[in-house]
Amino acid sequence: MTHPETTPHPRRTGSRRCLPDGLDPTPARARAVPAGPVPQRLARRDRHRTAPRGGPAGPARQRRAALRAGQDPTGIWRDACEQVAAGLDGDGGTGWQSLVTHLFGAEPSRGGRAPGRAALSVRPARLRPALRAALSGRPRLLEAVTFVKPGVRIDPASGRALDRHLRFEEQARCGSVLEAQVRLGAPDRPLDDPTATAAEALLVAGARFVERLGGNRRRGSGRCTFELAGAEDPGPWLDWLAESDPPPVPGNHGGTGVTQAPAGGAARATGRGDTVPGEPVRGGSWLVYPVTVRALTPILAPDRVRGNVGLSLDVVPGTLLLGALGRALAARGIDLAEHLRAGELIVTDLVPSPDGSPAHPAPLTLARPKGGDDATIYNRLTEAPSESVQIKPVRRGVVTDDAPHQPTVPARMAVTHATIDDDRQRPTSEVGGVFTYEALPEGTLLTGELRVRGTLAEQLAAGDEPPLPERVELGRSKKDDYGLAEVTIGPAVTPTTARHPERYESGDQLVVWLWSDALLVDGRHRPTPSVAGLQATLEAALGCRLEHPEPPGGLITAAVEPVRRESWHATWGLPRGALVGLKGGSVVVFELCDPVDGAKVAELEHAGIGLRTAEGFGQVRINDPALVESVPSDTPAGSAAGSIGTGGGGVEGAHPPLLGDDADRDDLELARTVERAAWRAAIMRASTALVADQARCQGALGWYPTGQASPPSQLGALRQVLAGLETSSGPERARDWLTQLRSVANRRDKWPGRALDALDRLLSDPDAVWLALDLPETELVATPNGAAHQRAELWRFAVRALVGSAVRAQLRLGSGDDDRAAEEEEERG
After folding, report:
1. Quick one: which of 169, 262, 359, 745 has the fewest CB in 10 Å?
2. Cβ partners under 8 Å of residue 287, min gap 6
3. Residue 567 confidence class, pLDDT cut points 50, 70, 90
4. DSSP state of 469
């Protein structure tokens, strides 16, 4: 972050401007934050914070809540900056408020304006990398990063809890230190120096006003400190802010997206596959760059909106990469639009892959038997099930080159958000209310290709830099919680045509498999998502006649589905006409009526068919071996849903690294807190399991609940003594009680033979309880010497939990026996 004193700025003449109440040049409690390549925001939880809930509960949801925050910091930061701007503007001024609007975007609920683009991007707040790495591979610790707190709603009239109003809130623990990356200015719309410095000063001042984050922050939760790296001492920033005039703010664009380079090139084709007249198409062989994308945050590739749920596509369209590609090429002096019009560029869809190998939409000719038998797969082009077997087509999923008959469905996640009404301070339908986004989860691997030829291929081959940046932003809501991805570009290769014969003769079959949605139109530019439309497009592209054969008995020769994809003009911020075409995965068989060169078929595979092929539409595969052959009988079938999960799971059996001694002190303190919570939960689970095992309970305690035990009076006295075991004098008092009990024969004889010796061993030897519980300690520590530290700190709790579990089990059994005896006596009476 630039310091204000290092850059000259116009100073306000005259008296010093008054800052809003609560702001003064003296620094608040500050702490050092490691500076990064971009400014970072740090939120330190001084009190528990309620995490936003979204999707199903459970360990997976808890892990997401533990490692990243929601969108609420941006909204709270905006409110704080608006307070600062109101104080600086005074009566009738709007200069600083205009800067707030430019930074955070225009809100559609105010004045009926269309939503405007924000110049400020705040990424999800996360734990530091070292702590994340230490926790991510240990599920028991991840579950302990958050905890669930029950609550109820109170009836204001009666003062009692309302029926059916029990709720559970997931909260992050005190002491959690989260960092987030903050970016000023969009990649295609950077801020000038005066505006950037004024924005930084305003953000520093606004950060001083942020005191709480998350849900229930008005009821005691979420208290935190909110700091900017490089501005731990806000005094100079506040001094400059009080003496400076607001800078001129650039005009706010009405659109909400990123300005995209125009898409066209080979995609701008007529229904017969001919390019638009007047736009020359350059030839030359294709050069293919393999592209692998790893989602650093969830990716929302917008599909349709159903009610208040925004759905996501299973793939990331190539259209979403054109903006980043255009900026990267412009930095090298290459005009993307020119090469698009010349048909020299194709960006294919990014398809989720289970292992990072090239993946494609599953062919619609695959089918499974009905009734839950997912272990059998049929290719209906080449094999037909028996008449007694009912089948259902595989309508979703992807396959890889190595496993073409194992369709898997990409995993999805759902996160619920809300738009807050400023007046009512709660979600309302007038401003958007509560809504849910469905997205591809963080860690998903996606594969695709970047194909170039002609002069563009020569220009890219002459340079050393990859055609795409290492990080890109994709999809909707990409300035905050979604859309950040890491790109890996493989070495360029020249595609081979060896799979096709030199010449296809009349009567040969072409099995056409769509690897992406195809936008097909007729001579009047009307959508034709049908077998006939595909036939006409292929005939125009190959220059020959085709015939769609009748299917033989029990088999099929076509499996197609129409698809509709909504479109959006990012610059205008308005919807475009819907795109109607054939769904990716559709398969159709054609017979050649005339011979055709194999090279022409191979070129068709590389260039695509229909409209907008430069954006990934119309990718085809012809005569793929996976379709012309039957499914091997020993081929395992893929999972019906959710097989493609998140990456980064680590190597099975490998232990994640521990936090080093040089780790940040706050991270070590939080790790110790998480370890303690995880150990306490593990102790309770292990105690319950041990008491349920008769042999283990007999060996550890000298008795077991279902056998001979002391009377309830003795067990109650023991439980009362154990209640104070965790105090400083608790073990000594327990041992004194045990000594007095042994001195009285009448009380001593009421205990089983080895029970008192086992209890004495647990109270005298701290290692005895750990030998009995046998905890998986390697899964419960993230710090050096963490196991020894927790054993020393929690052995009193462990003894109390183990003996208390046995006592409770025995008292429950005894209570049940007394009840049954009373019932039998009543029946006899």
Report:
1. 745
2. 451, 452, 453, 457, 460, 461, 492, 493, 494
3. confident
4. -
CA distances from 471 to 34, 38, 404, 596, 648 (A): 21, 14, 30, 43, 17
Q: What is the pTM of this model?
A: 0.81
What are phi and psi for residue 414, nearest 5 degrees?
A: -125, 130
State how far the Cα of 755 lies from the Cα of 269, in Å rounded to an integer. Answer: 87
Q: Which residues contact 739 (CB under 8 A, 6 or more apart)?
A: none
Cα(118)–Cα(110) distance, integer angstroms:
15
Residue 66 phi, psi dihedral angles, 5° rounding: -75, -30
- CA separation for the pair 683, 604 (Å, rounded): 64
Give residue-wise pLDDT tens across range 388-445: 788 888 888 999 988 888 899 999 999 988 888 878 888 888 888 899 999 999 999 9
Q: Taking the CB of residue 72, how many other CB atoms lie within 10 A of it?
A: 18
| 129-136 vs 665-692: helix crossing angle, rounded to 10 | 10
Contact between 299 and 475 under an 8 Å Cβ cutoff? The reply is yes
681, 687, 692, 695 alpha-carbon torsion, rounded to 10° = 140
3-class DSSP state of 438: strand
DSSP class of 614: G
Q: Which residues contact 647 (CB under 8 A, 6 or more apart)?
A: 294, 356, 443, 444, 445
- Condensed to tens digits (0 to 9), the pLDDT of residues 689-744 reads 999 998 999 899 888 887 666 788 888 889 889 899 998 898 899 999 999 998 98
- DSSP-derived secondary structure letter, 485: E
Over residues 527-554, mean pLDDT: 93
Instruction: Assign 3-class secondary structure to 91-118.
Output: CCCCHHHHHHHHHHCCCCCCCCCCCCCC
Under a CB-based contact definition with an 8 Å cutoff, are residues 639 and 379 in contact? Answer: no
First vs last Cα of the chain: how many Å apart?
A: 87
Is the separation of the CB atoms in 534 and 518 below 8 Å?
yes
Rounded-to-integer distance, Cα 34 and Cα 14, Å: 38
Tens of pLDDT, residues 153-182: 999 999 999 999 999 988 888 888 888 888
Contact between 334 and 602 under an 8 Å Cβ cutoff? The reply is no
HEC string of 748-783 equals HCCCCCCHHHHHHHHHHCHHHHHHHHCCCHHHCCCC
pLDDT band at 344 (very low <50, low <70, confident <90, very high): very high
Torsion sign across C-alpha atoms 559, 562, 568, 569:
positive
How much is the pLDDT for 115?
Answer: 66
Q: Note the pLDDT of residue 804.
A: 92
Task: Show the DSSP H helices in 352-490 as ranges.
Answer: 454-462
Q: What is the largest CA-CA distance in the chain?
A: 110
In this model, does residue 802 exceed pLDDT 60? yes
